[in-house]
Amino acid sequence: MSFSRREAIQIIDKLTELTQHNALQWREESPQRRMNDTTNRVDKVYVSTYMGRNIRVYEKFYKSYFEDDVNVFDWDEDVIIELIDNEGLVLSRFPSTSNKTELLNAIRYQNPQIRNFFTDIFGN
Q: Rounded to 5 degrees, what angle do the CA atoms 62, 32, 104 make?
């Protein structure tokens, strides 16, 4: 299954909205071993099920080398959104869109420690 960029934006906007209204709950999981190697790093993975489909969201850090020098690099990042099967294998990956980070931020805000911090700061 492949999504057009327009479809992906609409789906991600809907997932973000559901997450912000606590209609969609995410659980934190450890990244699969294959997600980390010498050039890629994933720290946290978030998984949810919506309408019978498993969705995985994570921030992937990858080495970006400068001027063809394999010894000089920086870590760049990308937000990855995937539909996965019950074993965690990828069925489909969403294309790159401008709203992926908004979904990841909404998921992170759902974390009670982060939400409680904002509540404590603003007295709500």
A: 60
